[in-house]
Amino acid sequence: MQSFDIEKVEWQEISPDGTCYTLLEGDKQDPAGGFSYLLKLPPGAWDRPHWHTGPARLMVLRGVLMLGLGADFKPEKAVPYAAGSILHVPAHEVHFDGCDTETLVFGVAQGPWSTLYVNGNH
After folding, report:
1. In the 8-state DSSP scheme, what is residue 10?
2. CATH level 3 topology of 14-112
3. Which pLDDT score, from 0 to 100, does residue 4 have?
């Protein structure tokens, strides 16, 4: 059994806006196994329209995740998902996400996993 203390995990900054990520277990590139991760978004962070090669199952642990669908980046169209919300983002579903307050998301996905941005916008 593995357990993780959210306050003690080692974060990797993945965006200049301060968004951080940590792989909890598994291998993102292993097609035979899944993986789990945490994503920490600072207030005001927004990830431009993108899609993933595999489906993701998300649970908002803290804060409010704003999630919008489509290739047009329109934060005002994003839907808020408060702590306790559980989401399924299908493979290849173009979406964008962000937050107004620090937000922590737990995710589970299947490899091989990649994130691809619409028109190369990051």
Report:
1. P
2. Jelly Rolls (2.60.120)
3. 82
